[in-house]
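Sample 1 of the test manifest.
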Amino acid sequence: MMHLTQIKIISTGKYVPKKILTNGDLEKMVETSNEWIVSRTGIKERRIAEKESATDMAYFAALDALGQSKLNKNDIDLIIVASITGEQMTPSVANHVQKMLNIKHCMSFDVNAACTGYVYALEVAASLIQSGSYKHALVIGSEKLSNVLDYTDRNTCILFGDGAGATIIQKSENHQAYFYNQSKGDETDALTVKKYIKMDGRKVFLFAVDVMKKSIVKILDDAQLTIDDIDVIIPHQANLRIIQSVAKSLQIDLDKFEINLQNYGNTSAASIPIALDEYAKKNKQAKNVLLVGFGGGFTWGSAILQIN
Ligand code: UT7
């Protein structure tokens, strides 16, 4: 099944906490080394939220996205936040963001699809806009993963960081946005969060390479485009070796991928919107972007859409 909507991204924003946790800092906390982390993952440092909650970071990213647009905050009538690290079961992070922005009339809710959450949220928002019931959607990925990390477990604590990315989308007859999101329920133990993140790293790695390749091929096929029509691929920022492996096997130049995991580590649902924002701020021309993610569940997905 192909999912086509007529929407475009009109602005992006991000927020990352100031505090930096380097590989050198982690060497003092667990039995690891900068050399191991860089060679196995590509990550050099990550941000850690001290005072900020996932809601605060979502709000700051939303303010950035609103500031980059010509919209008034009351033009927003839909807020969807992708997160697995909100402070409460309810109200949702999105409800809190609505309150902090003081938006009177809107629908707001969260999506939980782990690291694929933002791509899921974008498809849901695009569908609701396509229905004609909503005009401007604020779609956010925000995570405070430091809250669910066991800093004595070297298998996980070196990988993740905190941050938020936000996007505003609206209907546009001249633009076409394609989505492909999937999940499978037979690998629910490979990556879980109860109190802490627990993960079978090798299993997730192999799954990630496989579904990222398939998701890129599928969405290009749906859109009837080739990789040369795409200006940038924004992948989930989990591990440089995963991205390199996908690039090599699909024979795509690594330069086509926006990569910032060296600075932030894996920020789960925030990783794609943060990278998208950094790309958009560096490249002001209209661009065809391909998003591709994977995560616990397992979940995975891709999208092709236009920005500006
Ligand atoms: O958003 C989705 C989230 N998850 C992911 O994307 C994770 C995907 N998986 C990965 O990125 C990689 O599997 C890891 C980076 C987690 C691990 O890399 P790997 O090359 O798959 O290593 P491994 O798990 O096979 O471990 C190799 C060795 C082991 O030692 P032995 O058994 O060979 O003696 C580990 O105990 O490396 C050891 N090790 C470490 N050594 C130093 C594991 N973590 C560390 C560490 N520092 N932090």
